[in-house]
Amino acid sequence: MNKATRKTVIAGNWKMNMTPAETTAFINELAPMVAGKDGCDIVLCVPFVDIANAVEAAKGTNIKIGAENVHFKESGAYTGEISAKMLNACGVEYVVIGHSERRQYFGETDQTVNLRTLAAVNAGLTAIVCVGETLEQRELGYTETLLKYQTKMALTNVKPEQLANIIIAYEPVWAIGTGVTATADQADEGNGFVRAAVEEMFGKAAAEAVTVQYGGSMNAKNAAELLSKVNVDGGLIGGASLKTADFTVIVDAAQ
Fold first, then answer.
1. In principle, which of 80, 103, 190, 206 could form an S-S bond with 202, CB 3.0–4.6 Å?
2. What is the sign, positive or negative, of the torsion defined by CA atoms of 97, 98, 104, 109?
3. Are 122 and 145 in contact (CB under 8 A)?
């Protein structure tokens, strides 16, 4: 982390977990555990059906609420989709875009990631944009090329001033939900490739200011080591964000 130039953000990505009632109970339990811990922004990105409960439960706390996806159109015949305008109206501040599971299972592409990113920042949301390579791509030596390409594609047509509302999360696909974690040095290297891509597009100052998270099985045991690396500005947390004690340990590590 380099708190002198950029924010540290710990964000939970709940995926398809928690009912509305469970959401309320979880945040009520978590809030006093993270109260006053202002060394990082604390975000919970929850399923659409949980947003109302999450926003209500988080009122008066230092917990911010995000969504897990957003459509790139403001309205229209897109059954099952949710627009940035709708998220704004629900009190959401953050949204995850381009997670590898969206790319793998739901046909997300670099082009649609870019469109969703633009829709989010144009609506005033903070976009958590995910990039990452597969194990095969890493073994073939394409990690740097792929991360830079995905980052630049995602940020196409983003205005320099909008970078303040963009977080990039490096999530190696081979380390998501597998229990396998990149080493701290691998995470730092991957985040560094992302930062280099931002520098190539927007300049060094912008690259030093952008928050780059690491995702991919960050947990209570490895968070401190990962967060000690200069290019790791927080985490996008999967399974560990569903346990208040584990999530709190990660928030503590970011202090």
1. 206
2. positive
3. no
- The partner residues of 234 in beta bridges, in order of sequence, read 9
Measuring CA to CA, which residue among 115, 118, 114 is closest to residue 131?
114
Among all chains, which residue has been given the structure tokens 């990660």? 250
Q: Determine contact, residues 238/217, Cβ cutoff 8 Å.
A: yes
Rounded Cα distance, 113 and 8, in Å: 23
pTM of the model: 0.96
State pLDDT tens for residues 159-208. Answer: 999 999 999 999 999 887 777 778 999 999 999 999 999 999 999 999 99
CB atoms within 10 A of CB 79: 5
The angle that helices 143-154 and 110-122 make with each other, rounded to 10 degrees, is 40
Question: How deeply is 96 buried, as exposed, middle or buried, from its count of CB atoms within 10 A (0-12, 13-18, 19+)?
Answer: buried
> Strands 211-215 and 166-170: what pairing?
parallel
Q: Are 232 and 210 in contact (CB under 8 A)?
A: no
Q: Rounded to the nearest 5°, which phi and psi values hold at 91? A: 90, 15
Distance CA 42, CA 61 (A): 10
Catalytic site positions: 99, 171
Give the DSSP letter string of 67-136. Answer: ES---SSSSSS-TT---HHHHHHHT--EEEES-HHHHHHH---HHHHHHHHHHHHHTTPEEEEEE---HH
Q: Which fold has domain 9-253?
A: TIM Barrel (3.20.20)
Give the C-alpha separation, 41 to 245, whole Å: 17
